[in-house]
Amino acid sequence: MIEHFSFAVEDADGRARAGRFGMPHGVVETPAFLAVGTLATVKALDPEDLRELGAQMILANAYHLHLRPGDELIRDLGGLHLFMGWDGPILTDSGGFQVFSLATLRTVAEDGVEFRSHVDGSLHQFTPESVMQIERNLGADVIMQFDHVIPGQSDEAAARDACERSVRWLQRCVAELNRLRAGGPPPNTTLPSRAHLPTTEFPRPTPTYPQSLFPIIQGGIYDHLRRDAARAIRDLDDWPGFGIGGLSVGESKPDMYRILESLDGELPRDRPRYLMGVGFPEDLVEGVRRGVDLFDCVAPTRMGRNGAAFSRDGRLNIKRAEYRTDPRPLDEECDCAACRRFSRAYIRHLFTADEILGLRLLSLHNVHFLVRLMRGARAAIRAGTLDAWSHEWLARYHSRPVTTE
Amino acid sequence: MIEHFSFAVEDADGRARAGRFGMPHGVVETPAFLAVGTLATVKALDPEDLRELGAQMILANAYHLHLRPGDELIRDLGGLHLFMGWDGPILTDSGGFQVFSLATLRTVAEDGVEFRSHVDGSLHQFTPESVMQIERNLGADVIMQFDHVIPGQSDEAAARDACERSVRWLQRCVAELNRLRAGGPPPNTTLPSRAHLPTTEFPRPTPTYPQSLFPIIQGGIYDHLRRDAARAIRDLDDWPGFGIGGLSVGESKPDMYRILESLDGELPRDRPRYLMGVGFPEDLVEGVRRGVDLFDCVAPTRMGRNGAAFSRDGRLNIKRAEYRTDPRPLDEECDCAACRRFSRAYIRHLFTADEILGLRLLSLHNVHFLVRLMRGARAAIRAGTLDAWSHEWLARYHSRPVTTE
């Protein structure tokens, strides 16, 4: 694989795999959940929280960071790792999804997409080339191709068109990335001077600036389009990993699970597979069973900010009156920094009084929950007991009526 | 002094003192700044942040906690320490200031104050007796008397009236507290069950429930009223410490400093003095020079949430455009968890993008700044160099125009 990147499958159990994905900033033990730090911060959390709860890798977003604060600014400050204080692996999404979901007044052409910023209405153009420049400036370990994303219920013609365009754009991404690589690493000329401080915890930029590009498989809910895309992409290059995009965007769960199953045979088993934007607990378990290694989703932090907490027995909404006097932790089997120290009654009080600590505690608990869930799945794969483990896990998680959306 | 409370003056330098204030939940080295956790949380911070930055004691508020979530609820959950996850010393303010500043439709009588909640308009009455019951339920180490607070520019007749009423209310507080103490500690019957967790960090309620009552000296900006109040209070009992209230409420700085100087001779030197609600850096230095041992103020966290940071060279507003590309930490001489890891450019980005981490980082930095300032003052007192230290400190702090309010 590309220098500084490696993937070793340590054990398999059915379609599921336990692996080690090595990158310039560290190793991720898979299956793994990536915490989402869209704007170079995982909302309401500190990088130290993420390290403490065992998060291994963070996702950031090229679209958002290009608009605010600007990818060139981040480059000039030494890259994303240094900027956001996270020295572990980072993946940047290309912004394909955001251009097609957040931005307004889009004009899609073969060359790229013209759109207006959702922040200030300013006009921008993303092409495969410009997105590679942005992701190069940001400096994540893994960078995603620029792709054409369509709604989950699109018809076959639209899905085919977007899917085939994404493959053509992938080839332009590769050409542009090779051109950029030939120019050496981006300049890091204005690094902060911290020599006066006796700390070793500040991340240092890597001198070699290696990055690896993941292609994204599109094709909507059409098995043959997905398989065709996987084969076409697979035959283009020796990829360090594969993104599976355009799922969890409105299609049914059986459609998503079937697509994963039909892709399993088309993708090399010695490369990590990343199911983009999928991250509810039940989806993670079902995805692992179908051979997925990496996941990301805003659900744990967004739900946390809205007062919803994952627990082994399903979700709970901490704002409900029943928790007013409840001395128990959010989840009695959880050992996160929120559950070790605080009662449901206290966290409910924080939400009732609009206190910021409440947002942090629930976000922390929810990210911890998914990170720990993936550790549990990994242990079950290594023990050869994933089938029993996942059925038991899902049965208990669904055993209680969900009290919140 | 009352059992479980002690105050030892280790060194004096002019009027200033370096001391150790011992309480059931720990020792505070004075002079010290108390972080304000009005609603049982220091806004935007975690108790773990406060421990890490060296905060020794937290203030919470009887008025706010009585309204939300209710002092009886906190009592039933094992008291404030357990509720908010802080096992160090806590002081509760009585709510006198809030009743007279936040609540509406007040009716003040000799018996107490009737008012409407600023949260939901519900009708409440605070009397010296009811406030002692509330503070007993909360269970802080130090509890403040219920006092009559008036605006900073009140005339002498109003100041005398409020001041004398506060002394009468103090006597009723003592009688009620003695009655409550005779009944033993409040019930703690529903403590959280955490036996399944391998943690030792969770605070345990103290079995003896000792609390000590601080009187509050009022009297507006009138030296003789202040001195009369100090003498009257001093002669009532052997107090474990003295609160100085009704300052930093609109009067001029020279008025405040003069009052502190005139009180110095009237208060016993072997008891801590707590200047309530005062906490800008320059006020802390001037207060220490005039014999104050304890301070509290919402300024560091409120300013932090508004984007203002303390630095050795004065305040800076992180939202200003000049910091957009600034790779330096907030304060190049600071070793707080924000300055060790993040640039001004990053923190400005967090504020520009409305990211919660920005609120936490500036709040953390500002509280750390005041805690460290008081450690510096303490070291100077012990070295006998407070005069030179404080002049140098103030000259540099004021050397640059303030860029924000």
Explained architecture:
The structure is a homodimer of 405-residue chains. Chain A is built from 14 helices and 17 strands. Chain A has 405 residues and is an alpha/beta fold. In chain A, the strands form 4 sheets. In chain A, strands 11-10-6-5-4-15-14-13-12 form a 9-stranded parallel beta sheet. In chain A, strands 1-2-3 form a 3-stranded antiparallel beta sheet. In chain A, strands 7-8-9 form a 3-stranded antiparallel beta sheet. The longest helix of chain A is centred in the last third of the chain and has 28 residues, at 356-383. The first copy, chain A, is globular. The interface between A and B is large, with 55 and 55 residues.
Oligomer: homodimer
Sequence of strands across the biggest β-sheet of chain A? 11-10-6-5-4-15-14-13-12
Query: Tally the helices of chain A: what do you get?
Result: 14
Q: Main sheet of chain A, how many strands, which sense, barrel?
A: 9 strands, parallel
- Strand residues, percent of chain A: 15-25%
The interface involving the most residues is between: A-B, 55 and 55 residues
Secondary-structure-based class of chain A equals: alpha/beta
Ends distance of chain A: 42 Å
**Helicity level of chain A:** 25-40%
Rounded to an integer, what's the Rg of chain A over CA atoms?
21 Å
Detail the poorly predicted runs of chain A: 189-208
The number of distinct β-strands of chain A equals 17
What would you call the shape of chain A? globular
Overall pLDDT score of chain A: 92
Short description:
Chain A has helices spanning 47-53, 62-67, 71-76, 80-84, 96-101, 128-138, 156-182, 223-236, 253-264, 281-289, 299-305, 344-352, 356-383, 386-397; strands at residues 6-13, 16-23, 26-30, 32-36, 58-61, 90-93, 104-108, 113-116, 123-126, 142-144, 212-214, 216-217, 242-244, 273-275, 294-296, 308-311, 314-317. With 405 residues, chain A is of the alpha/beta class.
